[in-house]
Write a structure and sequence with these properties.
With about 190 residues, the protein is mainly alpha-helical. It contains 7 helices and 3 strands. It starts with 9 loop residues before the first helix and ends in a 13-residue tail after the last helix.
Length: about 190
């Protein structure tokens, strides 16, 4: 609200919304905040699954901003392996896949994606180029058949469609996968 005229401006509304959102994230923080002997400010923040990490900033305001950002990232920007787990749980919960299919997806994810640096990337930071590198690297490094690639493609497509629906990313995986041009010669031939 503009104090001089008692009118509401778009900027004042945005500021109120941002402060309210920040406060909601700060309300989740239950750990002590302290100032060290070196004048830096510290606290512990929880990790997504188990454990915690030490957060340190030069001022109390910087630390409070970092705490709010950390909780927002926990909620809105998971790592790829966390996205996969969330997607699989969702697919089982809505009975969209069977337990056998879930197990196959988990096996394929553990085989192809989990050992890569891609698995620890934040969803929001992933670009089409990153996915292209992953896809072409999997085909090259694992010498897979077209059928195996189809299963892998289903996982990537499903995860990123789910991520877009949850507003974790704006990346359109469907357009990328539809434009993907991979020669049949890139795959290991199936021997009948």
């Amino acid at each position: 609200m503009c104090r001089d005229y008692d009118t509401i401006t778009l900027e004042s509304i945005e500021e109120l919304i941002m402060r309210r959102e920040k406060q909601l994230y700060l309300n989740q923080h239950k750990n002590e905040i302290w100032q060290g002997k070196n004048s830096r400010w510290y606290t512990y923040v929880p990790l997504r699954k188990d454990g915690r990490k030490l957060l340190s900033k030069g001022s109390e305001k910087q630390l409070i901003d970092a705490i709010a950002k950390h909780y927002k990232d926990l909620e809105l920007n998971p790592m790829i392996f966390e996205l996969f787990e969330e997607w699989i749980e969702y697919k089982i919960a809505i009975k969209d896949i069977s337990y056998g299919t879930r197990d196959r997806y988990i096996s394929d994810f553990n085989r192809f994606i989990k050992p890569t640096k891609f698995a620890k990337r934040k969803v929001r930071d992933v670009t089409e180029d990153d996915i292209d590198d992953l896809v072409r690297g999997i085909i090259r490094d694992f010498d897979i058949t077209a059928k195996t690639f189809s299963g892998f493609r289903t996982i990537v497509n499903g995860m990123f469609k789910y991520a877009k629906r949850k507003k974790y990313t704006s990346l359109s995986i469907s357009s990328y996968l539809n434009d993907l041009d991979i020669s049949r010669k890139a795959f290991k031939p199936t021997i009948s």
